Amino acid sequence: MSERRYVVYYRVSTQKQSRSGLGLEAQQQAVTDYLTQYGGQVIAEFQEVESGKRADRPRFHEAADYAELANATLLVAKLDRLSRDLHFITGLQKRGIRFTLCDLPDVDQLTIHILAAMAQHEARMISQRTKHALQAAKARGARLGNPELDAIRHHDLATANHQRSQAQAQWKQRIQRVIQYLEEQEGLRSGVAIAEALNRRGLTTYQGRPFTSATISRLRSR
Known about the structure:
This protein is of the alpha/beta class and 222 residues long. The protein folds into two domains: 5-116, Resolvase, N-terminal catalytic domain (Rossmann fold), CATH 3.40.50; 161-221. It is built from nine helices and four strands. It has helices at 15-20, 24-38, 58-69, 79-82, 86-95, 107-139, 149-185, 191-200, 213-221; strands at residues 5-12, 41-49, 73-76, 99-101. Strands 2-1-3-4 form a four-stranded parallel beta sheet, sandwiched between helices. The two termini are 38 Å apart. Residues 5-141 form the Resolvase/invertase-type recombinase catalytic domain.
């Protein structure tokens, strides 16, 4: 069984806490204790000074992007260092980003299961309501179906192409942030060194291929 890889995220609420170590030292100790007990490899660390009420936290999004691209687990000392907002948590779940809390290492799985069950229940209820509405409309003599189906299919194809382009653009933004992290935090400069670092972490290009210096050069130019 391969060793689990972690991207660690620390957050303090004020600059004073950041300078004094209040809160941060406790989080670092919690991470150290967790790794001592459960093992694992830390492949990146991100630290932020920001209120947990804000959803637009740049360092958190960098950490989440890094974890997603590297197929790693986001490791946080406590839930309140991540967020108390359920919408924020469900956003991670929808993206498929795994996260672990050092003080409650099983709560992430439990939370995800509960949220997934709630979403599945709601989807089932919507499906049932739609089915009942169609049955009622048919009973009233309404004509079901759409005479403009060909136009809709063409629109759906255009929409799918647009969504694919958006997904590729979002991937480029995420991988460019990872490259910036490697440049600023690990001091990597050459395309070869950055490509090797990305490949070691299990990251791939949008097409699922290993990175090369040429790939890095194209990403940097954008």
